[in-house]
Design brief:
globular
Length: 135
């Protein structure tokens, strides 16, 4: 959802937004139907997104790599090819001053979990988009 939310807030001609997972479980698959439904209810279309796994090249291509939780932070920094790349990895909730806050995985819960995650990510993406505008 974060990719779709942030894309809806920035100039897509000036900013590239992408998402990738650390595991290869769902490569090529679309987002969970509940994520698609929740995003759509909030005016964001993520139905065309397909899962991919993070690559070493991502650390060179992107200026910042946001992760959802501490576990992914540790895994992403371990994959980073050098110190400069490790410094690009940030907790997404750090954008709203909560770097220790994990975005929960709503997969095993109900629709309300997806709504809660959407709300968290929307706030973080607003802050990120604001930072991008100031650059």
């Amino acid at each position: 959802m974060a990719q779709g939310i942030l894309e809806s807030m920035v100039n897509s001609h000036a900013v590239e937004v992408d998402s990738a997972g650390l595991a290869d479980f769902h490569v090529g698959e679309s987002a969970d139907h509940r994520s698609i439904k929740t995003a759509k209810a909030n005016g964001v279309d993520i139905s065309e997104q397909r899962a991919r796994q993070i690559q070493t090249a991502d650390f060179h291509h992107f200026d910042i790599i946001y992760v959802m939780d501490k576990h992914n932070f540790e895994k992403a920094t371990a994959l980073a090819p050098d110190e400069v790349s490790r410094e690009k990895v940030k907790m997404i909730m750090g954008a709203v001053g909560k770097p220790e806050t994990n975005v929960p995985d709503p997969y095993y819960g109900g629709d309300e979990g997806f709504e809660a995650v959407y709300t968290m990510l929307h706030k973080a993406c607003e802050a990120i988009a604001g930072e991008i505008e100031r650059l």
